[in-house]
Amino acid sequence: MHYSVHFVRLFSLILVLGLSAQAEDKKLPIETTSNELVEISANVILDPAEIKQALGSDFGGDLVLVRVTVRPVSEKPVRIDLDDFLLVSSKDGQRSEPYRPGQLAGGDVLVVTRHETKQGGGFGVGFGGIMSGSGSGAGPTETSTKSEKTNPDKPDPLLVTLKDKMLSEKEITETTSGFLYFQVVGKIKSKFLELHYKSQAGKMALRFRP
User: Fold this and answer.
1) Which of 97, 84, 74, 100 is nearest to 172 (CA)?
2) What is residue 175's DSSP assignment?
3) By residue range, what is the domain housing residue 19?
4) Which of 36, 45, 160, 205 has the fewest CB atoms inside 10 Å of its own CB, making it the most exposed?
5) Whole-model pTM?
6) Ramachandran region of residue 191, left (φ > 0), alpha (ψ -120 to 50) or beta?
């Protein structure tokens, strides 16, 4: 009986360790992932001061900056489209598509307005606004966006910077890098963010270092 108890405990410990290892294996790769056509590497910038240093503005503190490197790993060209990328928060379910430079600066400046809703809910995504929340407390924070015209005759240096540093939409045969601009409402840690990418060979995803 004494040996049986120890055997059961040992078996239970091995089972728990095995399940823990499987859970670790299912985690997304950190900052780099690949398939037979393309390798994607990325790192995230969350600090508003660093974003302002890189771009010239922190955009009110809700902008998340992701530097992405795309490398073809076969002889087949790879087409880069912004619509193929999605930033997901595993903490609260926010999902954000990349903004284009003209939505952040230039002739159609994106104006962000926040207010709390009375009821809880899930989340939504779109260039018209993002809602996030867990359905508790005073309700989720709703962020609505709209475009406002600026002086078209006056060149906007911020728009030029955003265009120059953005990941270009084009077909590539060599490694290329650039920034993607996302909006995430509220403070978020990098460990909760995932970058998803729809490649020609299937869907890919990665997470960021804590």
Assistant:
1) 74
2) -
3) 2-207
4) 36
5) 0.69
6) alpha
